[in-house]
Amino acid sequence: xxxxxxxxxxxxxxxxxxxxxxxxxxxxxxxxxxxxxxxxxxxxxxxxxxxxxxxxxxxxxxxxxxxxxxxxxxxxxxxxxxxxxxxxxxxxxxxxxxxxxxxxxxxxxxxxxxxxxxxxxxxxxxxxxxxxxxxxxxxxxxxxxxxxxxxxx
Length: 153
Prior knowledge:
Elements: E1 2-6, E2 9-13, H1 21-28, E3 47-50, E4 53-56, E5 69-71, H2 80-91, H3 101-114, H4 120-127, H5 137-152
Helix pairs in contact: 2-3, 2-5, 3-4
C-alpha cells in the first residue's frame, strides 16, 4: 500500500512502487487533467507539482512521491497564482487543441511562484520543456505576463 497526498487529500493505493506517478493519479486517484504525452519526460503534458516544484509525472516513480505534497491541475483552483493563470489563459484564449495546457499551466504557476515578475527570458527558460503542437507559444508567454500583472496588482 502506498499513501499519497494529492491536492490536500490522502489516498491509499495498492500499486507497484515503480509505477509512474502519472498512472497512479489518472487511474487510481481518478484525476484525469494530467495528460500522457510522450512517456519519456520530454513533452511536459504530464507536469504536476511535487512539494511545489514541477516534475514530469510520466517518469517519476510513485514511491518517490510518498510523504510529499502533490498538486495536479485540478488542485490549482484554490491557489491565487493558479486562479490568475487560469484567468489570463481564458482572457487571451491561449489553448488551441488544449492537450498540452494542463502541463503548460503547471509550469507557468511554478514559474510565477518563484518569479512574480518574469522576463521573456525567464518564461522561455521555464517553459522550454513544454511542447505545444499547435504553436501557441506567443499566447502562452503573453498569458504568463498577464497573470503576473493580475498577481502583482
